[in-house]
Specification:
This protein is an alpha/beta fold and about 220 residues long. Helix content is about 40%, strand content about 10%. It has 2 domains: about 5-15 and about 85-220, Rossmann fold; about 20-85, Orthogonal Bundle (DNA polymerase, domain 1). Strand 4 (about 160-165), helix 9 (about 165-175) and strand 5 (about 180-185) form a beta-alpha-beta unit. Helix 1 (about 20-30) packs across helix 3 (about 70-85). The longest helix has 16 residues, at about 70-85. It is globular, with a radius of gyration of 17 Å.
C-alpha cells in the first residue's frame, strides 16, 4: 500500500522536549516532598498523557498530588522549553523535503505544541495541521487521535504512516491500521511491536522512501486545523 500522508508525533520526534518535560515533573515532585531519585525513574511514562503520568506518579510514591501540581509542572516545562529546547536533528530538512501531505498528532495540548514548534522554527511547516488529543478526547495508545488526523487529511488510515518514538504512540498507530516508523525505539521492543514496526534511525531517511519520489504537494491540498 503506498503512503499518501505522514502523521508525526511531536515530543521526542520533531522536538527534543521530553527530557525537559520530565525534568520539570521531577523538580515539581521534589518541591512537594516526593523524592524522585532521577528523571530516569519516569522514562517508562514516555508518550503517555499528562493525566496518566500524574496518576502513575501517585501510585509509585503513594502520595496524592496537590490540585495545582499539573499547572506547576506545565509552567516549569514552558520555562525549560524557552531556555533549552532544541529541534530533533533533521526535522526541518525532512519537512522541507517531503512530497506527501503531513501533520502532527500529539497527546499534548495545542498550546504546548504551538510553543515548542514555534521555539524550534518548525511551526511554519505545520501550522494548520496540528492535532491534539485534548481536541479529540482520545489519547494514545487509543487510535482515535490518529484516525481523526487521517480523516482531516482526507486519507484512509491504511494509506497513512506514523512516525513515533514512544511505545504508546506505536501501539496507537498499529491499532489505527497505519504503517508505523519507530524513531529511536527502546532497545527491547515488546513482542506485539518488534515485528510490526519499521525502525527509523534518522528522520531524513524518510526522504529516500519510494513513496516520497513524486511531485511536491501543493499548498492548496493542505488541510486546516
Amino acid at each position: 500500500m503506498p503512503i499518501d500522508a505522514i502523521i508525526f508525533d511531536c515530543d521526542g520526534t520533531l522536538v527534543d522536549s521530553e527530557p525537559l518535560g520530565f525534568a520539570a515533573m521531577v523538580r515539581t515532585a521534589r518541591d512537594c516532598g516526593i523524592e524522585v531519585a532521577s528523571d530516569d525513574e519516569l522514562l517508562h511514562l514516555k508518550g503517555q498523557s499528562m493525566t496518566s503520568c500524574l496518576q502513575a506518579l501517585e501510585r509509585m510514591y503513594g502520595r496524592v498530588l496537590p490540585t495545582d501540581f499539573e499547572a506547576r509542572v506545565r509552567e516549569r516545562m514552558s520555562e525549560n522549553f524557552r531556555s533549552e529546547l532544541r529541534v530533533i536533528e533533521g526535522a526541518a530538512e525532512l519537512l522541507t523535503g517531503l512530497n506527501v501531505p503531513f501533520c502532527v498528532a500529539s497527546n499534548g495540548p495545542l498550546s504546548k505544541m504551538d510553543l515548542t514548534l514555534g521555539i524550534t522554527g518548525l511551526l511554519p511547516y505545520l501550522e494548520g495541521r496540528i492535532f491534539s488529543a485534548y481536541e479529540v478526547g482520545s489519547w494514545k495508545p487509543d487510535p482515535g487521535l490518529f484516525l481523526h488526523a487521517a480523516a482531516a487529511m482526507g486519507v484512509s488510515p491504511q494509506s497513512c504512516a506514523v512516525v513515533e518514538d514512544s511505545v504508546s504512540g506505536m501501539r496507537a498507530g498499529l491499532a489505527a491500521g497505519m504503517h508505523v516508523f519507530a524513531f529511536h525505539p527502546p532497545e527491547s521492543l515488546a513482542d506485539d511491536l518488534k515485528d510490526r514496526v519499521e525502525v527509523l534511525h534518522r528522520l531524513t531517511d524518510l526522504l529516500a522512501m519510494p513513496w516520497n519520489q513524486r511531485s511536491p504537494i501543493h499548498e492548496s491540498t493542505v488541510p486546516t486545523r
